[in-house]
Every structure is written in C-alpha cells, then in structure tokens.
Amino acid sequence: MKLDDPTEQARKHPPHYGFSIARGFCFVKRSIWQLKVGSPWRDLPTEFGSWKTVYSRFRKWTDSGLFEQIFKIICEDDDPDMENVSLDSTTIRVHQKGTGAQKNPAAQ
C-alpha cells in the first residue's frame, strides 16, 4: 500500500471516527512530517494548519488505538513496505526500574 493512494484500503475499512478520508489523510501526512523532522509541535509549518489542532487529533488517535489499527491494516498487505517503520525511545516506555541498571564498562 502506498501512502499517496489510500483509497483502496479506505474502501476496505470505512471510517467510523466522524471525519472524511481526505481530511484524515491530510492529517496523517502532517503527523508523518512532524515525526520525521522531530521538531516540536509548535514548529509545524503554517501550511499544515494549527499545530494545536494537529497535536490534539494526534493524541486522540493515539489514545484510541487508531494508529495500531492502521499498522495492522498495512500489515494485511501481501507485501508491506517495512522500510519506514521504526521505534525509538520516544515511543516506548521503559519500566520504572529499567533506568537504574548497574553500569558495566566491560560489557560495553
């Protein structure tokens, strides 16, 4: 599935969040830009609209599990493009005691 042509997947999985596919896709493009660049939400270019609106929708979609659903849909494809899938420390929480491990210079 290509990011620039979401219509095929959209037909398989109709929206149920109260917004159009076109508006939702524009939002996804804005979010991808922000996540790629790694800039603060307030630095979102003005052509993407209000940073607060984009951030609020991003939090709402994240909290509702929508991004997880999108990921599962992408993985349903026979040949998903995994080149742009990544996780880093900003998306994965560490257990409370995970930061207090003893340092062992010999192991590094």
From TrEMBL:
This is Transposase. Residues 32-71 form the Insertion element IS402-like domain. Signal peptide: none annotated. It comes from the Bacteria. The lineage of its organism: Bacteria, Bacillati, Bacillota, Bacilli, Lactobacillales.
